[in-house]
Amino acid sequence: MEFQHRLLRTNGTAAPADGDTASPHLTGQAIDLAKHGLSLTEIAWMRGYLLPLVQEGKVDVEEEFQQSCFHISVYKKYLPAAATPKRDLATSRRDPTTALATAIR
What we know:
Elements: H1 2-10, E1 30-34, H2 40-55, E2 59-64, E3 69-74, H3 89-93, H4 96-104
């Protein structure tokens, strides 16, 4: 949060550190990938790589030109289904109520 407060003083496009419009960088949901030092071919590759992910609703990308970066927000949908293991709550909690609720599902 300290860095975000400092950034606000020097970067007119920076989001606040808290509130409804707080920067998603603070939660780890967003990342900026700098374009500085990339060739036009590498930038085109990034655009081509990111576009299908945007179309699938896995990420949101804003290509920034003032800051010269790709601002990428990553959504939970990005994770493959196998990445979130299904837990059997009935056996993990040893709670009869939970076991009943799990059995009803």
